[in-house]
Amino acid sequence: MNHLRSRVATRRSDSRPMLSPVTRRRNQAAFCLTAISLLHLPGGFCQAPVLTRDGVYWTRTSSGASTCATGRFRLYTRGSIVLRGQANNTVQYTFKQHAKARDEADAKRRLGVLTTRSIVERGWCTLTLLPPDRDETTSELEINVPRSLREANLDTRGGNIEAFDIDGMLLAQTAAGTVHLDRIGSSAVAKTGGGEIQIGVVGGSLRCLSGGGAIHVDTAKGETWCETAGGDITLRQALGPLHASTNGGNISVVRAGSTVSARSAGGLIDVQQAGGMVRAETRGGSIQVGSSNGAACESAAGTIRVKSVSGALRVSTAMGSILAELLSSNRFEDSFLNTGSGDITVLIPSKIAVSVLARNETPGNSGRIVSDFPEIRVSRAILQAPGPVLAEGALNGGGPVLRIVASGGSIYLRRQKQ
């Protein structure tokens, strides 16, 4: 310590002019290294690290505090992050590093030097906490920031991120790890190179990107994008338009207040309720739409079921059956149902005004069209040889046209039970 004190005394006695507080803020620089016991930062300080032992494991704890009056905060680190909003404008952190070591000297060598930098620049309060990049050590950061922040950016080079209670916008990104966000007042972005994303409540738009992990969203009040290279997407409530895409998982939506666009490379797509059009596409799974204002569904190999859908229907599957339930509503529009191999069943209310044109192109005599409505006439296109089976008719005077084509199964036009 004597040599450190002498260095500090030397710095204080040199001939360089003292900087005013305004100039010091303008220079925007303040550093705190673990080799220095105490160094004041603009509006705060960082303390000397404390090294403790638990058997063969050693933990070094560093802590500090500073103010952030700009309303914009940025964090760079390596390791896991737990961030919470609080009622004042103070940034307080505790950074812990863990290593397995033989003794204190070995622990210090393995843990290396933690570089801490606090800077205010271009309206951003930026805190950098970087331990050495070593496989034998792990680190975790707990940090409290002003809840009233207009914007917060969190960036870790590897580790989990948890962030809660921020009134403004939040960006959270990690090279590899899980991301958990909740009670974010404005828009939010969650990115991970490979890990699960869990979202509680976000007050604005939401974007979730994962290199390979599941995405779970409770409530997003703005437009929402969810994309993962491999994992399920589950969303309880999205008040704005929803875009969901996965290269290997299921997509489940309980309630969407607007349109839904869902794509899966090989999984089930289930949209229980949507306030707008549902567009769903899967290359290897089933599709189910419970309620929506129109639906455009396509599956390469899977059953498609659309229930209580008004507006227009565009439903197609290469291999699989189709079940469509029409609403007794004047909002029904021209629609088309098609399957390459499978049955098509349409449940039609008695009071709906609709014109039906059905065609069964199943080879041989196995193709059928079965109708509960005498107004719909069934016949073969060619009387002398097995040809397509046709059905045509108008219910309640006719209306929007429902076209149905089956190439490998039966067509059933059933009267919907009231």
Describe this structure in words.
This protein is elongated. It has a 38-stranded mixed sheet that branches. It is mostly beta strands. Helices cover 6% and strands 55% of the residues. Strand 9 and strand 10 form a beta hairpin. The model is unreliable at 1-42 (pLDDT under 50).
Helix content class: under 10%
Would you identify the regions where 5 or more consecutive residues have pLDDT less than 50? Answer: 1-42
Gyration radius from CA atoms, angstroms? 31 Å
Describe the sheet with the most strands. 38 strands, mixed
How many E-type strands? 38
Total number of helices? 3
Pairing-aware structural class of the strands and helices?
A: mainly beta
Strand content: over 45%
How would you sum up the global shape? elongated
- On the 0 to 100 scale, the average pLDDT is 88
Distance between the termini: 88 Å
Compact description:
This protein has 418 residues and is mainly beta. Helices cover 6% and strands 55% of the residues. The chain contains three helices and 38 strands.
